[in-house]
Structures are given as C-alpha cells and as structure tokens.
Amino acid sequence: MASKLGLEITIADLERLFRWAPGGHPPPPAADAADHGGRPPVRVAYQGGRGSYCQEAAAKAFPPSSSWQRPPPLIIPCSEMEEAFAALEDGAADRAVVPAENSVDGPVPRNLDLLLRHPHICIVGELVLPVNHCLLSLPQAPRSALRRVVSHPQAISHCRDRLRALHLRVEEVASANDAARFVAENRIADTAVIGSQIAAREFGLRVLENNFQDLAGNFNRFFQLGLAGSIGAVVVEPNLDDNDNNKHKTTVAFSLERGVSDLFRAMWIFESRGVRVTRVDHRPNRSNPVRVEEREEAGEFARFDYVFVLDLDGTASDTNVEAALARLKEIAGFARVLGSYTCSLA
Amino acid sequence: MASKLGLEITIADLERLFRWAPGGHPPPPAADAADHGGRPPVRVAYQGGRGSYCQEAAAKAFPPSSSWQRPPPLIIPCSEMEEAFAALEDGAADRAVVPAENSVDGPVPRNLDLLLRHPHICIVGELVLPVNHCLLSLPQAPRSALRRVVSHPQAISHCRDRLRALHLRVEEVASANDAARFVAENRIADTAVIGSQIAAREFGLRVLENNFQDLAGNFNRFFQLGLAGSIGAVVVEPNLDDNDNNKHKTTVAFSLERGVSDLFRAMWIFESRGVRVTRVDHRPNRSNPVRVEEREEAGEFARFDYVFVLDLDGTASDTNVEAALARLKEIAGFARVLGSYTCSLA
C-alpha cells in the first residue's frame, strides 16, 4: 500500500511535469500550497518558447515574491498566441503575457484580432521593457573560436551595424531561443546567438555582450491578459509598484455603421469630454470585411470595413470616460471595452 | 563585319532577356519602338514572382492597349519589396505596383516604411481588386487523382471551409506561384494549388474552381508608385477610366513633437477645414523610436514615437487641403505628402 502510494505520487508528479512542458497545459495548483498560506501559485501563460523575450516579460511581471504569500508563479510557455488565449479560456492559466508592439518594428496586430475573437478575455495590464539583445555563446569556448552569429531576422535587423563590425557570418533562424538551446545542448563553440538574458540563464550560455542592438530606443510592449469574469476573483498582484511611472489606460474597440468617415466623430466624443485619445488602430472587420455602398456622386463603391481600436487616458469608470463610452455605443455597430488597466515601464 | 553586327545584336538581345528575368532589371526601351509612334514601353515593376496576385494587379493597371500608342508594357517581377523601390530609384522602372492591404488580413505596413525611407518615391495610384483564389491543377489530370492541396498560409486561411469539404491533405508552402510552376513543370497530377488566374495562364494549369475563398468580401488593395520628379515627365496612362468609381485621395505622413497627444489636434486641422480624414495609420519613427519625457505628475516616462499617416479626401492642390497641410507643417516635426492620387476599383 505504501508502495502504491509512492507510485501514485510519482505519476502525479510526472503528470504535473509533463503538463508543464512547452505547449502543454499548466499543472493544477500544487497540493503543498499550505506553505504559502494555502494560496495556489499564479499560472502565467506566455507566447513564445523558453528563453524568449516574452518569457522575460512574464517573469518580470510576475516574479517570485515572499510578500505574495504564494508559491512562485508558474510561467507556462505557449508556442502559438492562440494557445495562450486558449489557456485563459479553459482555466489552465490565470494570466497571459503576449507581445503587443516593438518600438522599431511596429505593432503585433495578431493579439488585437484574437482579443476581438475572444469576448471573455481582456487586457489587464501593459508592460514596456527595454530590449536587451545579448550576444550569447558557450561559456567555455574562446571568443576567437566564433565563426558565425545566428538569430531571428528581427533581432538581426536590430543589430546590423554591430554585426558588421564583428566580421562573422550571419545566419537567420526561425527561433533565437531554439538556436540558443541547440548551441548549449550540442556544445557548439563556433556559433554565437543573439538572444535574451533569460535564454542565457535557461540554457547556461555566457553573455558576451549586453545591449548589442544598434538603436538605444528599442523597447517591447506587452499585454497582460485575463478572463473577464475572473479579474476580481483571482487575486494577482504583479510585483510592479503602482508608482509614478504607471498610467491608467482604457482600450475600446468598435465598428462604425458609416465606416472611417465617422472615425473623427467617434474620436470627438472622447476629446470633447476631456478624454484624450492616445492611440488609433484598426483591424479588418472579419465578420464583414467589405461593404458595398451607394455614393450620391459616384455610384457603387466598395469600402473596407474596420474594427477601430482606441486607447484612452483614464479608467473606464471615470465619469467622463463612462459618459463618452455610452455616447459611442449610440453610433457604433458594436463597442467593447477591451480593458481598463495600468501601463508599467520596467 | 556583318557577323560582328549579328553577334552584337544577339548579345544585346540576350542582355535584354537576361535583365528581364525575375529579379533582374528591365530591358531598356526597345529599339523598334517606331511601330508605336516611337514611344518606349512603360516598365512596371511589381513585388512578387510570376503568377502572383501582384502581377495580376500590375497587368490590370497597365494592360496592353492600342490607344496607348506604345508597345505593350513591360511587367517586371521583383522578389522583394525593396527591389521594386530600387528599380524606381535607379530608373529601371517607370512604375511599381506593391500590395498595400487585404480586407481580411489587414495592411502591409512594409511599404509605408519603405515610402518613408525613399523620399523621392510617391504613391501615384491605388487599385482595389477582388481576390479570386483559384483551385489549379494539371490540365490533363483527372480530378479524382488529387490527393493534396498546397498554397501560401494566407490563401489557405482564406479557403479553410472549402478545403475542409474537399477531404484532401492540405500543405503550406512559402510561395503559391512557385508551387504552381513546380506542379506544371514536373507534371504532378496529385497536387492542386490555390493560386491566381494569372498563375494558371503563366504556367498552363487548369482552373478547377474560381473564387474558392470562403468569404465574399475578400479584396486586395495595391499602391502604384512612381518617382516624384518623373510623374509629369513619364506619361503613363493606366487603362482604368477616370470613372464614377474613382476617388481622389491624398496621403500625408508626419511626426508630432508632442506625439500621440497631438494627433487629434492634427486631424482637427483637416476636419475643421472640411477635409475628411479617411484613414489613420502610424509606423514607428525609426529615426527616434522612443522619447523619454518628463510628466508633471508622473516623473520620467518613455513613450513610443510614431510617424502618423493620414488619408484625406481630395487632392493636395485643393484649396482646403493646401491650407490644412500648411497649418500641419507648423505643428509637425516633419510632414510629407506621400501622394495625391486616384483610387480605382477594378
């Protein structure tokens, strides 16, 4: 009986580890949560593999902290953005961290499309992090042994000038973190990887250079996502102080019966109430991407139809924001607050 | 001497053919232009390979036409968007056609970045075309021989429901037109390709189904580009009538010293003068992607800096547009009209 119990524990542990693996589902709250006041760990899904910049963002947003009275957060890799959304929807994760924008390359529109497709998921926080592209190599290998540098095309494009000065062969790979793991596991001495600090830590590589990027103003913006109904229920306190660098924002998505020609009118609804519009985006209205309409002077005309996405200063419960949102709903085909949250600069 | 002359002609012809090849530069105006009133052919670079939707757009915008008094246009494939821009800059092409947006998947931001980097290139026309995804196969092969369908991930995502009903294996490839050529050249009877009508014509494939996409509202938007100084000099008359479906637009790009918080003010400059803003886009300001600024209430704050891109109703020479542009320049870090052009729905 004792041996059976032992076996059961082993299987449970294996299952937990297995479900923790990249692409798998997170483990259930640990049974030994009693050490942490009985509270289960926060489960944070992120888009990307081990060693990715998004893992770095998830770890920064949810660090282990004794003040939490919780076991360390479970940081769960998801190979696809869809997987991170699914983990929230099926209750396998309490939070998800996904990339939203790079200051040099622009926004990642995919997560707006997914937010529009998942009405129960909303933005609960925003995190801006400086990009630190590191030049990584095997710890034991001498620098003179290096013959080539590999990374994702985006990272390579961020480090073009610095790479040129190295006079090494440069090769693009689909995933910088997979390349870092490959170099570490196969002890490849002639190859450096441009990757994150967390990749160095995860795979035991040496950081030859920090901040290897050409431009100083290279930042990533990430969204923290949560399930709408659970925001109050799941107590998650990220370790980012509500300090002076933080800022309250509301993101609202809506369609307009008269399309872009009403966009300014929609913006005016906010600005005229003292609510500043700080971002204007649009995505295809997938339920009805093109409208054919009659124009008095020009006959039939096909116009692309959009879902507009505005960022506003303030929270959705501010009197002015509330009044403006109520007015917007009168002219919008649909309108939905995607989130009312705090922006943090780490 | 005659043989030498003969040889010279052959080399010139070979050179012309060689430079006409995919990725190469276009031939110089043909020597026998006398048949066409002495006018050289219009050379149109497009982004994509033979058989691509962009080739279809280029052919639609510049069809052979006797009314032109010119030899047929030379349609020149460019594998990269940069190559099409370079062909304009070095005088190897008179026009370029590049994809700007798909109504289901959203904009192609790369060409805005390139337009910002190439100050002498501007938008001279816009073309909206319905997407016609065709199911293509070898003409001789029976339909029952088909075992799989291949295409670019975007085309596959547009045809997901129809593909499911076929009960065939579906495989993603990097280039649908390369796949179409491969199927044709290697006489592969078990594979259908989702591709363009022009791919069927170019490679001799059979169109099993037209409009194989799931959604009816699937349109592509293309830009026609030209070199700013040459717009008056090179007479190019696309075969699209200035009919009732056409519409005059102006696209202006600018940066704002105070960033997004001044965006509404910039839009107001146009709207208050009766100039309708029909599109609001932004791209990273690559020369200065992030600004660190002091906020009275919140200390230091890093904000992403953008180049804003607005589409306006009307031409840049309209009195109201002109006045608004002059006013915009007073509050903008830089401001540039990317083009004043006609939008055509084919």
From TrEMBL, chains A, B:
The organism's place on the tree of life at top rank: Eukaryota
Keywords carried by this UniProt record: Amino-acid biosynthesis, Aromatic amino acid biosynthesis, Lyase, Phenylalanine biosynthesis
Classification via CDD domains: ACT_CM-PDT (cd04905), PBP2_Ct-PDT_like (cd13631)
Endpoints of the signal sequence: none
GO CC field: chloroplast
GO molecular function, one term: arogenate dehydratase activity
Annotated stretches, region: Disordered: 22-42
Any GO BP annotation: L-phenylalanine biosynthetic process
Keyword Lyase on entry: yes
One Pfam family named in its UniProt record: PDT
Protein name as catalogued: prephenate dehydratase
